[in-house]
Design goal:
Layout: E1 2-13, E2 16-27, E3 31-35, H1 42-50, E4 57-62, E5 65-66, H2 72-77, E6 80-83, H3 95-106, H4 113-116, H5 122-131, H6 147-159, E7 165-169, H7 177-194, E8 197-201, H8 205-211, E9 214-219, E10 222-227, H9 229-234, H10 236-258
Parallel strand pairs: 3-8, 3-9, 6-7, 7-8
Antiparallel strand pairs: 1-2, 1-4, 4-5, 9-10
Helix pairs in contact: 3-5, 3-6, 5-6, 6-7, 8-10
């Protein structure tokens, strides 16, 4: 079943074409990575899906519903969660409090925050934190956590909205190699277990080739390749314009690691 479909997305900024006829589909429970060199149009495409940018033409469909050009708040309400390159959290609040705030917003109870914020959806927040391995840190201020743990909490925050689709912008940015692998493995397990589609951008080719089901390669705003990690890795055009020899080695390392 197709969860997300991008159909002929185009975006111009004056005379600059940032995305040209970008089309792809994403199934429930599938992880699709968008990769490409700097300036390839990854962020533009990503933001057209999430509502931060309206396409100049083309459509974005979520479970068959046209969400093209809807504002991010409305896109979120329809079942799209998001994490960011720099984690978006309330550093002065506890770990559980951050997740509770997301649950309060999701359930439309923001008027109850002043009186009941500490108790509202506490059990649900702890359950989400358990999913990402952070339940024991529930009452710690999030500002005390290592960055890799903060990214896990951010994932729990995104899951608080019970998303059908999860958008992850550079999810492993700023993390150590071991933390990157652990976060992507965790995300893949949750997504496949719950049937959540994941669209992510990433520069770490180890993370991409180890965990993506399919890969979309953009160069100068256009799709030059799409398919399984194996087919993308073997694509001569992708090798020439993006991966190169170092990327090829990273892909091989990722594949070996994924298979033990």
């Amino acid at each position: 079943m197709t969860l997300l479909a991008a159909e002929g997305l185009n975006k111009r900024f004056g005379g600059v074409v940032a995305a040209k006829d970008v089309s792809f589909a994403l199934a429930a429970g599938e992880m699709l990575a968008i990769i490409g060199p700097n300036g390839a149009g990854k962020s533009t495409t990503f933001n057209m899906v999430g509502g931060q940018l309206a396409p100049s033409s083309g459509r974005v469909l979520l479970a068959g519903r046209d969400i093209t050009g809807l504002p991010p708040r409305e896109v979120c309400r329809l079942g799209v969660g998001r994490t960011f390159q720099v984690a978006q959290t309330f550093l002065s609040m506890s770990v559980a409090g951050n997740v509770q705030m997301a649950l309060i917003a999701h359930h439309g109870r923001t008027r109850d925050v002043v009186a009941d914020a500490a108790s509202l959806y506490r059990a649900e927040a702890l359950a989400l934190l358990a999913q990402v391995g952070m339940a024991e840190a529930a009452d710690r201020p999030i500002g005390e956590l290592a960055y890799g743990d903060v990214k896990r909490v951010e994932l729990a925050i995104a899951l608080a909205a019970a998303p059908k689709l999860l958008l992850m912008d550079e999810p492993t940015a700023g993390m150590a190699p071991r933390e990157r692998a652990a976060l992507m493995q965790l995300t893949a397990g949750i997504a496949r277990g719950k049937g959540i589609g994941v669209l992510f951008t990433e520069h770490d080719m180890d993370a991409v080739f180890a965990h993506a089901d399919r890969i979309l390669v953009l160069v100068r705003g256009e799709v030059i390749a799409e398919g399984s990690p194996e087919s993308v890795r073997a694509n001569p055009e992708v090798q020439r314009v993006y991966l190169g020899q170092s990327g090829h080695k990273a892909a091989l390392r990722a594949r070996r690691g994924a298979h033990g």
